[in-house]
Structure formats: structure tokens, C-alpha cells
């Protein structure tokens, strides 16, 4: 296997983030409600929320054995944040309050220029809805 990135003919593309859960239906319902986008089911153990930037895949713990025993554990994420770029985080906060039950913070302007709303999904994964508000942050996201 060639690991020298300088010889690759194409740059790598991040296309998907997968979360593993014991309750796919509950997670699908949550992400459909917070994102306002439909989730596409492939099997009872696998569904995908497709966005213009990439896909959030939701897989059952029953799929973990396909990758290797104990290679992933449901509801055990303590490092990754699932982030969605939104038009107006303050408006989203009012809407999300009807769906999410555990907020980490209300909309807050971060030092890097994004206004962020942090909350948790049913498995405890951290979700960030953010809107660039400074000229520099807007430029990073083409806004």
C-alpha cells in the first residue's frame, strides 16, 4: 500500500461520518427533526442523511461485526463534534429547543468568528449548529 500522499493522483475527499447506535430509528428521527432533511434508509441497520457537503451515516451496533469485533461502541464518543452550517443559528435555536433536550450552550460567538449552538443527540454525541458572523469566518465559508 502506498502511503506517500505526494504521489496520489487525486486528493482524498471526506465524504461521510458514521455514528454507531443501539437505536437507529431514534437517531434517524432526531437528525431528521434537527436538520429538516430526510434520511434515506438502506436497511433497518443503516441510514444516511445526505447534505451538500457530505453524509452523516447512522449504523446499528449490529453492523460493527462487519468491520471487526468491538471496533466501535455506541454512545461512547467523547472527542468528535458533528457540525452543521446553518443560515441563522439564533433562529435554529428557537426551533431546536422543541427537539433537543440537552444543550451544552445557547448561541455563543466563538473567538474564530462562528456563532455556535451546541447540543447533544440521543446517544450523547455533540452537535454544533453554527453561522459564520465575522468577515473572516464568512470568507472561509463563502458567505
Can you tell me the overall shape?
globular
Largest sheet: 4 strands, mixed
CATH topology of the largest domain: 2,3-Dihydroxybiphenyl 1,2-Dioxygenase, domain 1
By secondary-structure content and strand pairing, the structural class works out as: alpha/beta
Question: What Rg is obtained from the alpha carbons, in whole angstroms?
Answer: 17 Å
CATH 2nd-level architecture of the largest domain: Roll
Enumerate how many helices there are, as a single number: 3
Which strand order does the major sheet show? 1-4-3-2
Number of structural units classed as domains: 2
Order of helices and strands: EHEEEEHEEEH
Notes on the protein architecture:
The protein has 143 residues and is of the alpha/beta class. The chain has two domains: 49 residues, Signal recognition particle alu RNA binding heterodimer, srp9/1, CATH 3.30.720.120; 66 residues, 2,3-Dihydroxybiphenyl 1,2-Dioxygenase, domain 1, CATH 3.10.180. The protein is built from three helices and eight strands, in the order βαββββαβββα. The protein has a four-stranded mixed beta sheet, with helices on one face. Strands 5-8-7-6 form a four-stranded mixed beta sheet. A hairpin with a 4-residue loop joins strand 6 and strand 7. The chain is globular. The chain starts with 15 loop residues before the first strand and ends with a helix. 18% of the residues are buried. The mean pLDDT is 92.
